[in-house]
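S1.2 Input.
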Amino acid sequence: MNLVSCPAKNCPTVRWALGKLKDVRACESLIASLKDKNLEVVAAAYSFFIKRGMSDTETVLIEALDKYGTKKMAMDFLSCRNSDLKEAAYEWAKIRGYKIKPYPDSIDVPVWGNNG
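S1.3 Output.
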């Protein structure tokens, strides 16, 4: 049995691993989670979605940040070059009492639409 057809593929950690694969079936599985608004999976695989840069996905990504966000996730949103995600990151941090700033350009972060 491969990872894509594994029954545990609904587990957020498994979905995160699927996001690291360059397999079309893995991508389809993650995109289905986004469309279904499975926020736990979206939060676990947010880097995959940022790199895809799919239009009209920011709202679900922001909902995932609000519900399952971490400081690293907020920092990545802040530095990903998407103005909606940047604004959401500042708001998320403010509500939680964090002070965040963008990563230096030398740090490798997911960039909106840079499917690398």
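S1.4 Remarks. Residues 7-96 form one domain.
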